[in-house]
Amino acid sequence: MKATRVLLLGLLAGGVVPAAGQGHGHDRYERIRESVEQRFRLFEEEQRRAAEWEHQQFLRRARRFVREWNAFVEDYNRGKVDLEKVRELSKAFRKLESSSWWRRAAKPKRSRRPGRKKAAPEKPRRP
Predict the structure, then answer these.
(1) Model pTM greater than 0.90?
(2) What are phi and psi of 123, to 5 degrees?
């Protein structure tokens, strides 16, 4: 993110930085720089809020699943199975699975080591 900011500021500075002795252009550069920094701060804040919302949504879905699971277990221990509670449990689990946190956790991680390459066939030597 910092590299992008530096690159963008560098590009802006290339066309805006005034020649020596021109103070007005420097003020313009500062206003543009401040505007760009403010937009980056807003963007970062928006990303933080979105991540926080996703986390809260995952927690709500997990709590619902646990609540449905406990209700099912209580009935099951009493020797009764309510199909409506089974449906609700299944629905709660599907909702939990559909959350972005679940998908990220289920995604297989790539190993950092590159795969082994097949050995190239040896060329016959000439006598």
Answers:
(1) no
(2) -85, 140
Neighbouring residues of 32: CB distance < 8 A, sequence distance ≥ 6 = 12, 16
| 90: number of Cβ within 10 Å | 12
In tens digits, what is the pLDDT along the chain, a chain of 127 residues?
555 555 455 555 555 444 444 556 778 888 898 999 999 999 999 999 998 998 999 999 999 999 999 999 999 999 998 888 899 999 999 998 888 777 777 776 665 555 555 666 666 676 6
* Measured CA distances, 32 to 9, 16, 17, 29, 40 (Å): 9, 9, 11, 5, 12
What is the Cα 91 distance to its own chain's centre? 25
